[in-house]
Amino acid sequence: MASSFNKNCLDDKIALITGGGSGICYEIANTFLKYGATVYILSRNKEKLLRAEMELNKGLSSQRCFSIPADVRKFDQINDAVDIILKKSGKLDILINGAAGLIYR
């Protein structure tokens, strides 16, 4: 099925996707990359995150997916992740907060 979106409609956009190491958020990251965005994926599981980053960058002409291990339940880790993105890319245009921040009591 043909897409109704312009192939480069997300060029120059910077996206942060929490939970991007797997599942729905992985597919969102993949779609954003197909339309030209630079994508940062966050997850607590560093190994899964690195595998996802490698897979998502396959077939791209340059690396546009970057992983940052972080726990969305810890403000300092999220703050540090945003600082990394701003230092590297200079801005943040899109936030998809799809990580499960389950808190057990």
From TrEMBL:
EC code: 1.3.1.124
Pfam family, one: adh_short
Record's keyword terms, sorted: NADP, Oxidoreductase
Single GO molecular function: 2,4-dienoyl-CoA reductase (NADPH) activity
Record-annotated membrane-spanning stretches: none
Signal peptide as annotated in the record: none
Superkingdom of origin: Eukaryota
GO cellular component, one term: peroxisome
Recorded catalytic activity of this chain's protein: a (2E,4Z)-dienoyl-CoA + NADPH + H(+) = a 4,5-saturated-(3E)-enoyl-CoA + NADP(+); a (2E,4E)-dienoyl-CoA + NADPH + H(+) = a 4,5-saturated-(3E)-enoyl-CoA + NADP(+)
Enzyme class per UniProt: oxidoreductase
Biological process, per Gene Ontology: fatty acid catabolic process
Protein name per Swiss-Prot or TrEMBL: 2,4-dienoyl-CoA reductase [(3E)-enoyl-CoA-producing]
